[in-house]
Design a protein that fits this description.
Layout: E1 2-3, E2 6-7, E3 15-19, E4 26-31, H1 35-53, H2 57-73, H3 75-86, H4 90-111, E5 117-119, E6 126-134, E7 137-141, H5 149-161, E8 164-168, H6 174-187, E9 194-196, H7 203-211, E10 215-221, H8 224-236, E11 240-244, E12 249-253, H9 259-270, E13 281-287, H10 288-304, H11 323-338, E14 342-345, E15 349-350, E16 360-361, E17 364-367, H12 374-377, E18 384-390, H13 396-401, E19 408-412, H14 416-425, E20 430-433, E21 452-453, H15 458-463, E22 466-474
Parallel strand pairs: 7-8, 7-10, 8-9, 10-11, 12-13, 12-19, 13-18, 17-18, 19-20
Antiparallel strand pairs: 1-2, 3-4, 5-6, 6-22, 11-21, 14-17, 15-16
Bound molecules: nicotinamide-adenine-dinucleotide.
Length: 476
Amino acid sequence: MFINGEWVDAQGGATFDVTNPATGEKIGEMPDGAAADAELAIQAADAAFAGWSTTTAYARADILMRAWQLMNDQADELAHLMTMEQGKPLKAARFEVGYGADFLRWFAEEARRITGQWLPSSRPDQRFLSVRQPVGVVAAITPWNYPISMLTRKMGPALAAGCTMVLKPAEATPLCAKAIFEILAEAGVPAGVMNMVTAQDPVPIGDIFTSDRRVKKLTFTGSTAVGKMLAGKAAASLQRVSVELGGHAPFIVYPDADPEQAAKGAAALKFLNSGQACISPNRLYVHRDAADAFIGTLTKRVSALQTGNGMHDGVGVGPLVNAAAVEKVAAQVEDARSKGAGIPVGGYRMTEGDLCDGHFYAPTLLTDVTPDMTVYREETFGPVAPVVVYDDVDQVIELANDTHYGLAAYVYTQNLKTAISAFEALRFGIVGINDVNPTSAAVPFGGMNDSGLGREGGHEGLDEYLETKTAGISLR
Ligand code: NAD
């Protein structure tokens, strides 16, 4: 673990194994921390806050830029580690490293733009000044599916704002987190400013993060159930909270869309990271006029996907994170099959040959999907594309909005009016319009309803780490 600028063992001395989800092999071990370790980390972050928050924005930006440069210099090694630890194909891992690094550059640039306001008063002999200051110690809890970019998306703005941090990475991917902390230390982040606690059991760490009075903000990315529970605990301590949670994205193909283009987009997006993305489409609504061409192209594309160890050339779909994830996907597919779904491609676990020790499920297309199927409501987090054919264009937005989630939605149409009307009516935080990658460090990312609170990235991403202070100044 990384506490007060030192690499340390857990106080209890325990460790846990990290394994490769494609092969089941042990690839490393990390300290198995507990509540006392989390407390030490918070103590270090609290002690470092006075110094870091008064460092100039120029100095903080320089450190972030150095870290961005180091991530780029080490991109191949980081991508290699990510594929070994998390499973996504090397090319996708390389892409994530670039995306993750970009949050450091973007927030380095934003750091120098944290300004205040000079405000009018109704009294001629009074002036008002308002400034934005860092909130204090931030506790961060991150997921395994994007084990680098989900960290830098929190670290970038926290460091830029002048906050200090304690972070607990997902137990499946602590090695990627360790590599990023090594980079931050090398870039010159002072001791105590960034601290990392690893643990196999997240509960005691989460309890300390949400109850310690020295922690002023909780930032969490992960499942809706855990996010809600942690937000509840943080509320009791009146911590600021931002939570990026699950999703159930609709992907709407209007009758005037190019169905082949839409199917290419759907195939690229749905199977990215084996479907383990919070913005992954979970309901593909295709108008009956476009259905044959769309399903035909999608079937061809899904059949052509090569599944396997992400280290191997040509592999486009890697393993799922663990056996429980494969179980969940298989259960959803069996439920859909039993309720009448067609399965033109996939629909089975992959356990042959080299894949026998990994967690693989075949890229799957489901047709004739209906609202009574679990897959229609529950986040899949796996390589399954459920297609629903619809007839009424006036009703499709209502269908798309019929979910407790509200993170991402996608619209394919060639009509500007349709695109804008859909964009405005969809109750989702992010909408891709003929576009499968509506994310960037420069734009706000986040959801509505059960998909979370707050935004990461963009100008808004920095606001989450700042609070406003006002001075009334008498000229009498
Ligand atoms: P998860 O909620 O199980 O775990 C996320 C993190 O929370 C991990 O670090 C884990 O150790 C920790 N955690 C789990 N239980 C905890 C507890 N009781 N107390 C404290 N910490 C606890 O989620 P996951 O399975 O790792 O990630 C997948 C989920 O994350 C999906 O639902 C996905 O949609 C979501 N996600 C959302 C975004 C987004 O930006 N909205 C991005 C990536 C992933």
